[in-house]
Here is the input.
Amino acid sequence: MSPRRVTMTDVAKHAGVSRTTASLVLSGRGRELRISQSVERRVLEAAQELEYRPDIVSQSMRTGTTRTIGFVSDTVATSRLAGDMIKGALEAARERGVMLFIGETEGEPDLERGLLEAMQDRRVDGIVFASMFTRTIPVPAALTTAPAVLLNALPAEPCPLPSVVPDEIEAGRAAARVLLDAGHRDGIHLVGAGPDIDDVPPGTVAGVERLTGIRDVLDRAGVEIAGGRVCPDWQPEHGYAATAELLERERPRALVCLNDRLALGAYQALDGAGLKVPDDVSVVSFDDHPIATWIRPKLTTVALPHHELGREAVDVLFAEIDRRREGRDPDSRSRRVPMPVRRRDSVAAPRA
Amino acid sequence: MSPRRVTMTDVAKHAGVSRTTASLVLSGRGRELRISQSVERRVLEAAQELEYRPDIVSQSMRTGTTRTIGFVSDTVATSRLAGDMIKGALEAARERGVMLFIGETEGEPDLERGLLEAMQDRRVDGIVFASMFTRTIPVPAALTTAPAVLLNALPAEPCPLPSVVPDEIEAGRAAARVLLDAGHRDGIHLVGAGPDIDDVPPGTVAGVERLTGIRDVLDRAGVEIAGGRVCPDWQPEHGYAATAELLERERPRALVCLNDRLALGAYQALDGAGLKVPDDVSVVSFDDHPIATWIRPKLTTVALPHHELGREAVDVLFAEIDRRREGRDPDSRSRRVPMPVRRRDSVAAPRA
DNA sequence: AGCGGCCGCTAACACGATTTAGCAACCGGC
DNA sequence: GCCGGTTGCTAAATCGTGTTAGCGGCCGCT
Here is the structure.
């Protein structure tokens, strides 16, 4: 079988000291507690020679901290985006020597509760509670036990939890500015939401906020939105249908698609109508989904910074853990992570 | 602060019995060790009333099993596929009340070693060592300590580890059969690899095995491959280039693309040449990437069963853990998970 | 000589569970 | 009345670590 792990007792024995002394030296408190240099050296050498590594389970037992955090999300498999978020969280955790439990609730309260309990039973130091698309959520009661952060989600009711979300309003503004900068003033249509602020699929934050940002910039510039079409879901087929229907009535100069999958559908409809992107119609979108660089021409889009969101959430979580340890009140503000514009080939000046 | 957790001592005190008795009852060994029915009931009631849940860290300390496994992969963020694999693993783990650590090595040996050590230090019960695309890998020494399974990877040298991989050869056969069944005999071209068995991008298992399967079926049917083009990487742009170049020379009747991203590029090139899928050219592919259903017409493809691979890996891992516990030798066979054909709209009978 | 103080280390307990060994009480048989 | 066996429970050890309290020895001062 596998050879028994080297324990601190082994190290102490090998160095000819008590286990206490070994513990003191190895936890760096030797100097403070007046362990002689020679003993200290003997212990360190013994530890190195035996390749001693502390057993974290035992440490957790004693100290109460497991150097482990939980990452709970509704789903991990929707897209590459989810993976990026986890990747960011993973990096930030690794820098602190912390491991990540992951779990998915599939949106079911039972699974959610079970998962949170399983993590608490394993004494996680904190929990990142993530949603794969931005929305407001009812905060589970179990989340108030351990330090926690909401990721890509806002609490439905005021609660003492910090949250990390993408800055969708500013993203909307950025998308509108891309078109204005290229010289567009007329024939700007929306695909997926709008034109009015109430025309959004239910339950999404991204819809309202992106639309708010777009309208804000266009309004200020005195530019009127030519039209818009709300889609129940933001899949390619809906983008195709909305755009095809639009093309029957009029000829747009620019499309703002509310995400890249809609934009893919819009491309297909434009192609079917013999219109060229960007010469005939400019397209700007949101998300920076992998397909944005696969379709032709490559899509100009405002990126969801999933990687950065994941990192930031873990950073905020550890700040929160520190606050708790110091007995301070939790920080319930929400962080807005900027969404960068990826300028590619789908936007051009309108034809004269 | 957060209220102290309810411990077994609390339960025992509340029921008026010793901690030992409480433990016996709660671990279901009460009957066996002749605890009276009345005491048993008192303990169970106390546990329920106090909402007692055992502390898994303490249990781990005593029993050596953490009900936690590690999922180590080179990367988790390449695509939705990775997410699906994790999702499958997660499901299988949840069914056993087991949590999942995840970590990524980014292919760096240092990170890999650190990660495996971190997991061992947390006494994981076993490790799934996954690759995001099928390949042969050198098995890290640290993997032999705990029970482990290779997922989507084959050991470079014989070693006592089971592995779980997709059945790529049979997938190749299935793809070829799709074309034969539709009546194709001539003008079958390969995109991404081939036509000879050596024409594959280096380091991939999928390339050789898919090609092997394709050739196997076509050879048996007496059908000759009209041509092929190996691509250094399997991205849309390579599929586009290979197909565009092919179209300059001749007019294919069917394309076997070695993955869906290549197929996307091929679609674009065919579209550019004014050829219709599937009327002019049939296309069959591999992976069942999300875009397969987004592009028009929807792509017929042989699916990588990522979800199933993840599940299977965890199942095999637990079988392995059981073997070890019973002192039997490890099972070093490799499992082949079938790759199902997704028949959609990109294959039709050749034009008369 | 007696006493206080420092130096360098160790004994012992705690964390929360599991498990082994054993104790007290009762019963029956001779 | 003593012995042996069964019943029903508990004391105590254990896992590997962190931490507090304290012990013996030496030095210096009066």
User: Anything to note?
Assistant: The mean pLDDT of chain B is 93. Chain B has eleven helices and twelve strands. Residues 12 and 19 of chain B are 5 Å apart (CA to CA).
